[in-house]
Each structure stands twice: as C-alpha cells, then as structure tokens.
C-alpha cells in the first residue's frame, strides 16, 4: 500500500474493498499472503457456517484444516505464479447431506505489482456435480443401449470421419472404438463400398433430410447387405454438423425374399396351370363348340409354357389311307403357319405308332433323337425341342397336343407333362361331348323341322278356317242384306210411287170440297153435322202434312236400302273402283242405332275429317266389313266404359270416334279410325290380329273380326293394318291401301 496515503483515504479504500467483496455473486474473502482473513462477505460467513464468529485476522486453515494439503498447494502456486486455480471438495452440510464445493484462489497485487494477498471464492457446485454424474450415467446407459443394439450405429462429421460407433461397428471392423473414430469409410472398407457410403452421405448433406438406402459392407463370409437409415443432426445455427446412421444386416432377409420370390414364381406357375385347367373345364361346360375349345386350349398352353408353337393334330381315320392334320395352332407371330399340314402314317411311322399306342414323345434336343425318321420330321418342321401327348376319346377319336420350341433347346419337366396330361383328359371329354352335341343337334333339327312344318300346317288350317268362316259369313250376310234390301225395296217403291198420285187425288178432292163450300154455303144439316164431327178444317190442313211425312219416311227407307246394298255390294263386280267415303257412310248408317242418343244413353259423337280421295280399286264388300269390325269394336269399348261412368262424367268427357282419310302419295290412301276410349293393354294389342283371339265373354265374340280384317287389308289388298294404343289413351287403327289393285300380285 502506498506510504503517502492519508488515514481517511485508507479507510475509504478499505470500505470500497468491502463493498466489492460483498457484491460479488459468490461467497468471497480477501486474505493476506499467509491465508489470514482480512475482509469477508456476509455470504461467505453464512454459506460456510461462520456468521457467528469473528474471523478477521485468523487463518483460513484454522476453520478448514482439511485444506492444509490441497488448498495450501494451490495457495503456494498462486503466490509463486500469480495464477488462478480451482480446487473441488466434497463436504457434509449441516443437514448431513453430502455436497460439493469449489474453491477458486487467485492472487491480488498492489500498484507496484507485488502480491500482497489472495482472494478466495467459494461456490456450491452440488447441482452441477449431480448433473455431471447424471450425464455420465445417461451417457453410460446410452452407450450400453447402442452397444447392445443389434444394428450398427455410428456418427460422422461433415467430412465423413467417424466420431462415435457402437460395439456392432467394432465387431464389423474388428477394431476398437478408439481405433475407428477419426477414420472414414475409405480407411475401413474396399474402394467401391466406401464410394457408395460417401455418395449416400453427400445426398444426406445436400438435402438435409433423412434417407433410407441399402448399402454393402464386408464380413468374413463376404459382402452383406445393410438397410441404412441416415439422418442429419443440426447445430444451434441450423446447420448440419453431424450425420448419424443406423444400419441393419438384411442379408438373410434378402436371401429369404429371393427364395420367396422363387417359391412364389413356382406357386404362380402352378396356379396358372390350375387356372388353365379350370378355364378349359369351364370352356367344356359352357361351350360345346369343339373348335373354340381346341383353339382356347392351344392358345392357353402356348402362353402359359411360353412356347414358340403349340398345335392340335387330328387323326382322320375314316379315309384311305388315314392321315394326320393340323387343325388348331397358336404360335409366335414371326413363324409361318402350319394349319392344314397333313401327313399319312407311313411318313411318320414311329410317331404315328406311339400316338396310336397312347404314348407321348418327349425330346429335349431334336438333333440327339436316335430315331432318324422322327429326327428328320421335326427338323423339317424347324423344331429344336418338342413334347407331344396323344388324346384318345371314348368315342374313338384320336388327336395329339404338340408343344414345340424353334429357337433353342428346352428341358421338359414332369410338371409340364402332367399339365398336358390333364389338358388331354379334358379335351377328350370335350370331343366326346361335342360329338354327342352334334348328334343331338341333328336330331333336334329334324324334330324342329317337323315342328315347324306342323306349325305352318296349323297356321294354314287356321287361316283356311277363318277364310271359310269369313267367306260364309260375308256370303250369308251379303245374301241376307241383299234379300232384305230387295224385299223392302219393292213395297217401298210401290208406296213411294203411289204417294204422288195420292197427293194429286187429295188435292183434287180438297179443291172440290172448297168449291162446294163456296157455292153451297148452307148444306144439309146431316152434312153439317158430319163436317163438325170430322173437323173438316183441321183435316184439310193436316192431310198434306201427313202425306209429306209419309214421303219423308219413304225417302229414309230408300236411303237405308241403298246403304244396305252399298254395304253388301252383291250387285257389283268383285273388284271395282268405288268411293271410299260412301262405304264408310253406309257402315255408319247401319250402325246408327248403336251410336245415336237415347233417353237412357248418351250417344257417341262421330267426327269426320274426310280428305279429297280419288276412286279406289278394292273388294268393296270385304272392305266395308273391315270398317264394320273396327267401328263395332270402338263402339263396344266406348259403351262398356260409359256404362261405368256417371252422366256428369260423360258430359265432361263425351265418347268420340274420329274418322280421318287422306291421300298419302300417288299410290296410297290412309284411313285412321280413332276413339278416346280406355285403350288396349300392350299384351292384348300384340295379339289383336291372331285368329280366334278375343277378350269378350263367350257368346259375344268369335275372335275373327280383326283377324279377318287383317287378312282383307294385308293379303287381299296388299295394304297395312296397324293399331296404336296405350292403356288410358284410346286406340287408333291405321288402314293403308293402294289405289290400284289391277296388276298387283296378291297372296
């Protein structure tokens, strides 16, 4: 301490030292060179358990005699070298717990640089020591874990140098961890293996993402395959500072996978063969087409066994001489076809004899075949290897399945022979079934022809019967109508012819009576009485009206007679040009009683939309019957529906029949007869024109009306008769007729 400092300055400096020591974050004390206390912080006293003692001027070793050796040595070195030293010690706290304390000793000097004392810092490092112990324990546990892991675990720096390895890595290299760390893969493994490791590490460093790769590593029995998961480890700056890897030996698994793939390939091949057999079996069951079955068989065999060519050869034994013919073929597209190729027995005698004896031929190398005929034959066909299997059926048919290679030799295994044998058994069944099927088809065709002939005969009989019924019906109806018309016409003509004379006579008598009344205004009383009794004035006025009514009635009867004659057409030639509208009107005249209003029934409204039609060549009477049948059916349907409706419903929706005629073109006309009735269900509509089909009760319908109408329109007139209807939408009949029948061929 400088000599010229005043006492106050000395005190001030001492106070500053005290404040400095007191405000340090550690327990601190200033001591002289002999380790006697000069200044202590309150924390020093309390932490060291000396707060009840006055220790100023007393020696540190007095309170901590255990420091005589370790701390005194550090003390002497500090005084000699002016350095800072640390000493750690274990101690027992007041609660008898074991703790750790660190003593830090450093020298302090005056202004001249002379060491005048030391400073002691005391710090409780128990937590740090415990953390270090735990860290060492965790480190040991981690090392134990990675050492006992069956995988190889390692860490590398960014230059590829190993920084940490586990025991498996030591076993792999035969070196200790100390020997391994600091080395790269190029120092430990062959060049090509190390290059692969380095490339994978570069991918990891570039991407900064974990990767999974397969890598090689040498072992005593050769190179092993490892599945490596490599991952980056980042520092505080987010940079990759270390890379890690976990590698698992998968050599056994790779061998197992290879064996499994081979086993799967064999199982797949077996499954494919079984699938082929199943397909052929299904083909036999689902199809009796022999050619299709054989084509499927050779195609599947060629594809499954990967053959250059697969053939089916049929033995044609019903000829002289018998011969073998290739009937089905599946081949490589580059090869020429052998379909249709034939050989007689003599040309291939050894092969033919074996096939006929049910023996197969199995040749791995054609050029080594001992039989010259067989060798030359297969060489001629371009075969290098061949496998043939005969097929014999119960019906006596014989064939051969022939498998061939043309590019290289092939060793045929037993499984392939077994497959062909199974295929051959199925094909033998297929051939027998196909033959039986052909025989049954021939029998069925004969039966079908007979059935068809019977059906045609039945249809002809039905048509003949219908035509006979129609002819008889039309003849009877025509004769009846013509006879009635004739019988009515005679008296009507007599009455109608005498009405004019009666009218003249009546007018003369009335004129004479008027003259009497004018010239003899006062007649005899008896005459006057008679005139009053007969009401001569009323009689004179009503008698002309009576005669007029009689004339109207006679006119009406004449029209009905004319309509009956037009309808029957008995007095005209069979084919004649007629006015179609007259026939329709005549039919409506006859049906007038069924369509007119009555007190108990509202009539049916007839709507006529007649076009401008030329005369039509036709069988007029038969065509009128068609109109009668169609209109009668429409009236029946409407009346039946109206019988189930109220008067109000009928008024809201009255029954109507619309008749429309038009000229379609220069050769055809069309008549459309439509009603707004209940319509016809589709199943019934499809059978409308069948003979004897009717939906009416027994006694009300014969089932011949529309059938005969169809024959009249289609067969007689070469026209068309159609029905358009749906349930609830009425029905419409379309009659299309040619204008000319002369020169047209009819059925």
Description:
Residues 85-137, 211-262 form the PAC domain. By secondary structure, the protein is of the alpha+beta class. The protein has 5 domains: 7-126, 2-Layer Sandwich (Beta-Lactamase); 149-249, PAS domain (Beta-Lactamase, 2-Layer Sandwich), CATH 3.30.450; 287-412, GAF domain (Beta-Lactamase, 2-Layer Sandwich); 435-571; 573-738, 2-Layer Sandwich (Heat Shock Protein 90). It contains 22 helices and 23 strands. A 6-stranded antiparallel β-sheet has the order 13-12-11-16-15-14, with helices on both faces. The radius of gyration is 65 Å and the shape is elongated. Residues 1-7 have low confidence and may be disordered.
Q: Termini, distance in Å?
A: 157 Å
* Helix-strand makeup class: alpha+beta
- Residue stretches low in confidence (pLDDT < 50, at least 5 long) are 1-7
Average per-residue pLDDT, rounded, comes to 80
CATH homologous superfamily designation of the largest domain: Histidine kinase-like ATPase, C-terminal domain
Biggest beta sheet summary: 6 strands, antiparallel
Query: What is the number of helical segments per DSSP (H or I, 4+ residues)?
Result: 22
| Rg, nearest Å | 65 Å
Number of domains: 5
CATH architecture descriptor name of the largest domain: 2-Layer Sandwich
Total E-strand runs: 23
Named CATH topology of the largest domain: Heat Shock Protein 90
State the oligomer.
single chain
Protein name: histidine kinase
Catalytic activity: ATP + protein L-histidine = ADP + protein N-phospho-L-histidine
Keywords: Coiled coil, Kinase, Phosphoprotein, Transferase, Two-component regulatory system
Organism: Trichocoleus desertorum GB2-A4
